[in-house]
């Protein structure tokens, strides 16, 4: 069978151009950035969401800022953090951009951990997210969603016992800044969310960029090896 080389070359060129256009369109749609959805609710701890938010918003790669960071809630009604800070969520769990990373901060997590709509939103995004990270008592939401079973995790020191009770199939570590068990990363209380987010930056963009962000934030506490990385 004879194949016309000119037609073959033209077909390959058309295919390549179509692929390139599709790739460019995808990059433009996401702005070339990974989406970071930070879940907020009434009673959320300020530093639990603001600390990781600062880390992700400051991180960069060769083309500029590496992450598109936004807040998500059950609805867009303003929420109250730390009894004085009013936050207006940018999106709801029903209309937010598809996240690559989800951050579940701690605080008054009881209502959110018992809201099936919240749990459904978290679990339905498992397949398309790179990382789901909890801070402090945000681990309780992960537990109620069944995402800590068979995994290693941590939380705020005041809720270690409680997390062990409600998650008997998980190994809960104390005195650990963060625990990386693959897709699921959990951190200890409040300021430890910064350590967890910096670990994510090191994991995705390299330790050099994580160190740069820590230096920019003048966060001297971060030590890359202070957390637990579970070996698979």
Key structural traits:
about 230 residues; alpha/beta; Rossmann fold; 2 domains; eight-stranded mixed sheet; two-stranded antiparallel sheet; 8 helices; 14 strands
Report on the architecture of this protein.
The protein is α/β, with parallel strands linked by helices and 232 residues long. It has 2 domains: 1-30; 34-229, Class I glutamine amidotransferase (GATase) domain (Rossmann fold, 3-Layer(aba) Sandwich), CATH 3.40.50.880. The protein is built from 8 helices and 14 strands. The chain has helices at residues 5-30, 46-58, 110-113, 116-124, 139-144, 160-166, 192-205, 207-216, and strands spanning 34-39, 60-61, 64-65, 67-73, 79-81, 85-87, 91-92, 101-104, 131-134, 152-153, 171-172, 178-181, 184-187, 228-229. Strands 7-4-1-8-9-13-12-14 form an 8-stranded mixed β-sheet. β5 and β6 form a beta hairpin. α2 (46-58) packs parallel to α7 (192-205) and α7 (192-205) packs antiparallel against α8 (207-216). The protein is globular, with a radius of gyration of 20 Å. Residues 12-30 have low confidence and may be disordered.
CATH fold topology of the largest domain: Rossmann fold
Round the Cα radius of gyration to an integer and report it.
Answer: 20 Å
Could you report the average pLDDT, rounded to the nearest whole number? 90
Query: How many individual helices?
Result: 8
Query: Ranges with pLDDT <50 over ≥5 residues?
Result: 12-30
Q: Could you say how many structural domains there are in total?
A: 2
Structural class: alpha/beta
Pattern of helices and strands: HEHEEEEEEEHHEHEHEEEHHE
Strand content: 15-25%
Strand order, largest beta sheet:
7-4-1-8-9-13-12-14
* N→C terminal distance: 51 Å
CATH class of the largest domain: Alpha Beta
What's the architecture of the largest domain in CATH terms?
3-Layer(aba) Sandwich
Amount of helix: 25-40%
Q: Major sheet: size, sense and barrel closure?
A: 8 strands, mixed
């Amino acid at each position: 069978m004879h194949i016309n080389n000119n037609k073959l070359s033209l077909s390959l060129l058309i295919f390549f151009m179509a692929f390139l256009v599709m790739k460019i369109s995808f990059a433009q749609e996401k702005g070339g950035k990974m989406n970071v959805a930070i879940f907020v609710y009434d009673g959320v701890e300020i530093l639990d969401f603001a600390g990781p938010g600062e880390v992700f918003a400051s991180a960069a790669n060769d083309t500029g800022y590496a992450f598109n960071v936004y807040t998500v809630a059950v609805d867009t009604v303003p929420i109250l953090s730390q009894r004085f800070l009013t936050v207006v969520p940018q999106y709801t769990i029903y209309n937010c951009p598809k996240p690559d990373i989800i951050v579940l901060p701690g605080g008054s997590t009881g209502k959110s951990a018992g809201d099936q709509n919240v749990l459904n939103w978290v679990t339905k995004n498992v397949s398309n997210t790179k990382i789901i990270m909890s801070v402090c008592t945000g681990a309780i939401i992960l537990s109620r969603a069944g995402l800590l079973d068979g995994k290693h995790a941590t939380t705020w020191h005041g809720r270690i016992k409680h997390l062990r009770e409600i998650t008997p199939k998980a190994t809960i570590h104390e005195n650990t800044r963060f625990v990386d068990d693959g897709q699921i990363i959990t951190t200890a209380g409040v300021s430890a969310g910064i350590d967890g987010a910096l670990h994510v930056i090191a994991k995705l963009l390299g330790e050099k960029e994580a160190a740069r962000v820590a230096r920019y934030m003048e966060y001297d506490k971060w030590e890359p090896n202070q957390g637990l990385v579970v070996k698979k």
